[in-house]
Design goal:
Layout: E1 2-10, E2 21-30, E3 33-42, H1 53-57, H2 61-64, H3 70-81, E4 85-88, H4 91-103, E5 117-120, H5 121-128, H6 136-143, H7 155-169, H8 207-224
Parallel strand pairs: 1-4, 4-5
Antiparallel strand pairs: 1-2, 2-3
Helix pairs in contact: 6-7
């Protein structure tokens, strides 16, 4: 399975008001593991930033002046996400902006959802943590993802953080060795009966090893929402 964790930065909050995409960041996951491949691009808009938007991203029209317009990078972007499932936090926001950019290029450029499937990590978080704050920063704190270096919103950095958050949010115990092995047809089975020969020895677990075990179980519980040892 190939997934692309995606984030965008824009000149404002609403594409319907003419705001534009100024940065796209993508992180590739293969079978739920980071492949090391990313796609990142700053984009020159043809409009100014709304008040406050530039401060959030740290970007400016001066910085973006020599960057390519969306039309020049659209094909490379679409080629990178082709055939993947997109993972986006608050997908309606990013998809709305990207579809608006593609619509400006003409009918040959279809909307995003007609090209790839989309997984909204915000909806997943709300199902897992109902009634709680589920912003990217809040999820980083709750799931133990280090975001201390996130001083400004940046598309690639946020995509990298979201990749960690998504993997923690959707982690199952099968990923850490608890899945039962698949049954094999016609597998021969040999039953060996062991007869006790004496009193079983009593083992005393050292306190430091017991503390490590408790910490490990708690980490599994936090990531997976449950733990086999609780049953």
């Amino acid at each position: 399975m190939r997934q692309i964790v995606l984030d965008t930065e824009t000149t404002g909050l609403e594409w319907k008001k003419g705001n534009r995409v100024v940065e796209i960041g993508c992180v590739e996951l293969i079978e739920r593991r980071p492949s090391g491949r990313t796609w990142h691009q700053y984009i020159k808009p043809d409009c100014d930033f709304e008040q406050g938007a530039a401060e959030i991203t740290g970007l400016s029209l001066e910085f973006l002046a020599d960057k390519p317009p969306f039309e020049d990078v659209a094909d490379a972007f679409l080629a990178f996400i082709d055939g993947a499932e997109l993972v986006i936090h608050n997908a309606a926001f990013d998809i709305g902006f990207l579809d608006a950019e593609l619509a400006r290029l003409g009918p040959d450029y279809r909307d995003i959802r007609s090209r790839v499937s989309v997984e909204d990590s915000l909806l997943l978080a709300r199902q897992r943590f109902p009634g709680q704050r589920n912003s990217l920063d809040a999820l980083c704190k709750r799931l133990g993802v280090d975001n201390a270096h996130r001083q400004l919103h940046g598309a690639l950095l946020d995509a990298q953080l979201l990749a960690e958050v998504y993997l923690a949010l959707t982690a199952g115990q099968h990923e850490i060795g608890f899945a039962a092995p698949p049954e094999t047809e016609n597998r021969s089975r040999h039953v060996i009966t062991l007869q006790p020969t004496g009193t079983r020895p009593r083992l005393q677990v050292p306190a430091d090893e017991l503390a490590l075990h408790v910490a490990r179980v708690e980490a599994i519980r936090n990531r997976a929402g449950q733990c086999l040892w609780d049953e």
